[in-house]
Amino acid sequence: MINEALTSIKGIGPGREKQLHKLGINNVSNLLVYFPRSYEDRRKIFSIKELENGVTAGVVGTVVSIMEKKPRPRLSILDITITDGTGPMKIVLFNQGYKKNFYKKGQRLYAYGKAEFQYGSMQMNSPQIENLGTDAMPDTGIVPIYPLAEGVSQYVVRSSIRNWFDAHHTMDEIMPPEIRANYMTMNRYDAFKEMHFPSSSESYEKARYQLAYEELFIMQSGLALLRNKEQCHVGPKMEPDGVLMEQCKENLPFQLTGDQERAISEISQDMQDERPMQRLLQGDVGSGKTVVATLSLVKAVENGYQAVIMAPTEILATQHYEGITELCKHLPINIALLTGSTSKKEKDRIYEELQNGTIQLIIGTHALIQDKVQFKNLGLVIIDEQHRFGVNQRAALQHKGVYPHVLIMTATPIPRTMTLSVYGDLAVSIIKEMPPGRKPVKTYVVDSSYKERLRVFFGKEMTTGHQVYVVCPLVEESEKLDLQAAEELFLELKDYFYKSFDVGLVHGRMNPKEKDEVMQAFHEGHIQLLVSTTVIEVGVNVPNATIMCIEGAERFGLSQLHQLRGRVGRGDIQAYCILVSDSKGDVSQERLRLMESTHDGFELAEQDLLLRGSGQLFGLAQSGLPDLRIANIIKDIDILVQARNDVLSYIREFGIEQLEKYMKLELEKRFGEKFLRILYN
Ligand code: ADP
Ligand code: MG
User: Fold this and answer.
1) Within this chain, domains 243-431 and 442-598 share the same CATH topology
2) Which residues form the Helicase ATP-binding domain (predicted)?
């Protein structure tokens, strides 16, 4: 069934097949998982006389007149009057004048929508309309409404799926029998059929639950297999903390916070196990992850292994290099920095000394992934700001060692729902507590009438030697327009401050080298005010910056705003975050107000998930995981947890090979090659 041609279904010829292609449906199995986006309850056909104001209902009637009106230049209204013998009803379509010739007098239509009594007659504005021909009756029951593309009708999708179900009466089961016995109340065929053509809302709910469970079970099986593969390897088992660790801790310029201590000891424990560590270190911007990373790196070195930390940009890598070198300055450790702009001569030296083991600790960018980089005995891999890297890049670095320990760090607070679904049971350490002495960033929401006052405020802060970020939104759909806006603002501010301060611009269209140069100039204080699109989101540390001003703030996610806010307030000077927004909507105002009242990144991330969905929070697209078609990892968290527990107990009872045997085909189908390559490399 997997790759069976669409044309094997009754009613689908080359023409319809082409239409279905437009929806991304290329074979029978694609078609069957093309689930409705909503449903209409058409169990009753109303007569027009029966309609009451405000009721959503379906009626069947014959067209008696069609009229187009153009009350304003950009507004066209199409009035189609139908009657069913009990009275007339008007169907009103806005700006769809092209449909004028689509409908004809005498034609029978089914219209489903909200009935409204207006101007003395019953009407429906923009209802769902189906053309019925002379004697056909509309589909009744609870009818699926599919997402469509231009030139494809509900009828084509619906009847194609209907015809498949009419011709087939079974579907292969894919879940292990023990799981089916416990959880599945319907067979798979019935569950799919209920999803497309529900017989009642109760059985629909049952079917949905079952298929969501199935989907999450498959996903969790994949993650379990992946993790199992990692765990059966033997990695570098390290000794309990020794002299070098002791020295490093003694020489720290500050006292570790409780959370930092705990994270370090969790990591140490993991590294003392022969199973390679797979741990996520989460901590808000400025919470002090670098020192945790440093101690982990030192531990690997202390045990005679090489260690590496990879950051997404040159400036970040350089900052890590400087910070880590400083923290390790009393220790006999050979540290190097490798980035794209390292000179050829230096690179050659680094390649050689990595291979012969002279360099013990290396810090760098993507340059580390290149083939020429070969380690003698890599024992620990740390990846900073992990959502900036794809699965493959992470894997490439990991494979430079023989199952090294892996620590990934992120400042994006990831709610538990996400860690569970994206990482399975990856171990997590969280730093919640900020280093002492931090003043919370004062946050204000203002509209653009504050422009002049803000500039005066920027000037005042810069006069005392502080620095300012101004961020303009960059959305992918229109990078060009946004760039224009950023450039305009840059020129305005440059003009405004030309006598006293230097203003810089950094944007997404610059190449990495250009970006780094501007950032470096800001870092070193040659630029006092930096206008940017969102590129500074990644953790650059400029302790002297005290104002973060974000234009069009309503266009950002709360997590993003929180990340940006984290760029300031890193020292003990009072810092400010100004959110400029002219959006009057209640929801966006409420979201922004939340920024004023909370500094908890986790809370903000949860809100984001609720309000905006998971996609953008966390580079899910890069995670290499399949799209979920039925389950929603936020709303269906209970099913997710259930499926995960069931996968784990299944493995305990029957063994991982048994699980693999049942799920392999399905995993291949859903996760695709990329996942399999990771699993079976
Ligand atoms: P992030 O988690 O964003 O990577 P960093 O590691 O860059 O944060 O730390 C932010 C700043 O806080 C650095 O200047 C660092 O020296 C300082 N810092 C880290 N831990 C502590 C601590 N326990 N006490 C005081 N300052 C600390
Ligand atoms: Mg950092």
Assistant:
1) yes
2) 270-431
